Amino acid sequence: xxxxxxxxxxxxxxxxxxxxxxLLTIVMTMxxxxxxxxxxxxxxxxxxxxxxxxxxFAGLVFDQHGxxxxxxxxxxxxxGMVFRLRPSNGGLWIFQMLHTFRGGPNDGAGPSGGVTFGPxxxxxxxxxxxxxxxxxxxxxGTVYNVRPPQTAxxxxxxxxxxxxxxSFNGGSDGEGPSDKPxxxxxGxxxxxxxxxxxxxxxxxxxxxxxxxxxxESVIHSFSGPDGVGPDGLAWxxxGxxxxxxxxxxxxxxxxxxxxxxxxxxxxxxxxxxxASLDVGLPGPVTLDPAxxxxxxxxxxxxxxxxxxxxxxQWIYNLLESFSSSQLTIxxxGxxxxITxxxxxHQFGSIFRLTPSNGGWTFTDLYDFQxxxxxxxxxxxxxxxxxGNIYGVAxxxxxxxxGTVWEFTP
Length: 409
What we know:
Elements: H1 19-35, E1 41-46, E2 54-56, E3 61-62, E4 68-74, E5 81-87, E6 93-100, E7 108-109, E8 115-117, E9 123-127, E10 129-130, E11 142-147, E12 161-167, E13 175-183, E14 189-195, E15 203-210, E16 213-221, E17 228-235, E18 241-247, E19 255-262, E20 265-273, E21 286-287, E22 293-297, E23 303-310, E24 313-320, E25 328-329, E26 335-339, E27 349-356, E28 359-367, E29 375-383, E30 389-395, E31 403-407
Antiparallel strand pairs: 1-31, 2-4, 3-4, 4-5, 5-6, 7-10, 8-9, 9-11, 11-12, 13-14, 14-15, 15-16, 17-18, 18-19, 19-20, 21-22, 22-23, 23-24, 25-26, 26-27, 27-28, 29-30, 30-31
């Protein structure tokens, strides 16, 4: 998420529900799933805003067993959590809270970008705040590892162990890590910070495991013309990193960049600068197997765009004129995304863009109603092998705190 769209998640909330009521909400969610089975969208979990958290603000991931994992900005102590949804008999999904963040110097706060599984099979998260150093009273952010307990968890509330791998200090190392981390084949971890670096315009960092823990190094500091406020990374097949910066560039409209491994370091190339603030502010990018880059801008009406390599240059192609989340591409080359608002009810939508005769055909798949289905969907969509789509709505649902849903086209 861009640095100017960070929800207020640093204020603790009192625990207003009993544990028995929380278990009842899980059962009621299962009933809601059963009731919606014959429709195209199923609610897998409706957040209550209490012990199961609320306000999911990032996309989901599967593990090898078909369990879903995600994060929320609100949690048991008010600082967000990591959760899992486990498929059960009859198409039901069982909610489990894996880790609830507590803020402060020894923990993270605000896991705004979702989870990544590392080479050791445990979960890695970037938290926007928390950690050992004070940045505006809320901490400068962390890289955090969440690990399962040694014995199997028997309840819905079973806090996994966790630990801060690195606390940002708000200086040259960065501040406010955003999106989610990536790993390379050697087990090194990469991510972005919204602030910090030599010009306080954000960084791209690398964490390398050593015998004494993890060592952080900045592989690029942004300085304005190359971008301000980077948000998320993507690999290509050659081991190059790609991303976008939500501002900076020529007229503060943002940039798309590439980092190429070079002589033991990294060389940054600015691939595209958006022409103005009015049509800019790009979000995280998606790559297809041919090396084309897809993304969207959020300012004004918004756009969905493609950058294609051609003769050493990058050619910009406007696909649609509206704003979207980060896009997901399937094996056939179709693009899927969500709109934050819009749709026939103005509470967001799911859409597909299909390549057709040198252009793209738009299909509106589902419009959220701000009822049991939720409202204001966010994050990158997740597709399974059958073509089902999984995502989150940041608000709405049965209790008003958002939903996890599955959509069958």
